[in-house]
Amino acid sequence: MRTIGQHREAVEALLAPVLAGLGPQVRVVDDLATGAGVAHHVLAQSVVAPVPLPSFDNSQMDGFAVRASDAGRALRVGAPVPAGTVPPALEPDTAVPIMTGARIPDGADAVFPVEATPPGAFPAALALAAVTVPGDVVRGSYVRATGTDLPAGAELAAAGTRITPALLGALASAGVSEVQVVRPLRVLVVSTGSELQGVGAATIGDANGIALRASLREVGAESRSVVVPDDDVAFLRAVDDAVGDWADVVLTTGGISAGAYEVVRQALEPRGLAVTPVAMQPGGPQALGSVSFAGRTVPVVSFPGNPVSTLVSFEVFLRPVLARAVGLPDRPEAVLPAADAASSPSGRHQVRRGRVEDGRVHFVGGPSSHLLAHYVAASHLVHVPVGVDSVAPGDPLTVWSIR
Question: CATH classification of 4-21+184-325 is 3.40.50.2300, yes or no?
């Protein structure tokens, strides 16, 4: 059996050409900020600021725009300058009320805060006929100068930068309405099992398909799903049709163990799938390979069918690869003492579910791969390495935060 590390490296090598070959896609900045399913894009091309940021000198606070050379003098008060207007030039011997973000009038080179006046605030200070400029006012006081954030023509963000709320704000501020992003990976999620299409009490819900599509979205991938029965001919027909010219990767669940109706194994091994068991519990059955569908060769990653096995497999093997491709960090990791005793098969790396309370790791439920409700209640994956057959309270354990 492979180790976890060996299989993760094999998954990464399988997907590397696809991830490297994703082309650019034009996206509207507003859609990136508000559209569904567009999280975790990265720039395909660098973005240059078409204007300086800020694009004009503006006031850092509510106050009075003045000439610094008038420090210490009493000046008459002119017409106020609200934000969003282009004010006339500052007249001699004059101070004008100015609001935060408003454009500095030509001739003014400093602002002093309204708190330095007797009323101390607007709108009361608008009624003043004259103000005295504080003696410590110097050129540039409380002025946000043009281009001090970024000059025109400078690189706002480099290719490969992950699109964050701050970047979207900077793009909007610079008047950039469209950007080139790396097209999201497109994954076809295939859930196998005749029980997913059974009749009445023989039917169960497609937990794997729903959970995996949600997991893929968290790392920026787009997905479609198909449910197929345990029949080789029906499986191949459905997947060939669904792959079409759309899917970059096929992700299957179930059908790769040693049973009599292992449809993924039976249908895809002749096309290039390699079943490669891994020394892990749950999630020991694994498979991957480059497989031909309707004349196209597509990478296939196959997980076992029990829902906890599926989710653990995604976290261990696929999420790290896809997250890295869109600039997301790995799951937060820590080493903490166990609160409970537990057993583990010494020849396998066991991944248990748990919670961290009072700085200790508490196991949630047992190790069985069907305990999905216990996975829901957990906040961490708890790793018991190969060679450890028992855990005692106080033993150090590596945990990944999944919340």
Answer: no
pLDDT above 70 (res 39): no
Judge whether 97 and 44 are in contact, CB under 8 Å: no
274-275 and 222-228 strand pairing:
unpaired
Q: What is the pLDDT of residues 83-93, one digit of tens each?
A: 999 999 999 99
Q: Taking the domain 58-144, which CATH number applies? A: 2.170.190.11
Read off the pLDDT of residues 317-334 as tens digits, 9 standing for 90 and up: 999 999 999 989 999 999
Q: Which of 5-14, 80-89, 361-370 has the lowest mean pLDDT?
A: 361-370
Q: Specify the domain boundaries for CATH 2.170.190.11 within the chain.
A: 58-144
pLDDT tens sequence across 13-35 = 999 999 999 999 999 999 898 87
Residue among 311, 368, 380, 376 at smallest CA distance from 343: 368
Q: Please report the sign of the dihedral spanned by the C-alpha atoms of residue 381, residue 385, residue 386, residue 391.
A: negative
If you classify domain 24-52+151-182 with CATH, what class do you get? Answer: alpha beta
User: In the chain, what percentage of residues exceed pLDDT 90?
Assistant: 89
First to last CA, the chain: 30
Among candidate residues 16, 62, 7, the one with its CA nearest the CA of residue 324: 16
Cα-trace Rg, the chain: 31
Does domain 333-401 sit in CATH 3.10.50.40? no
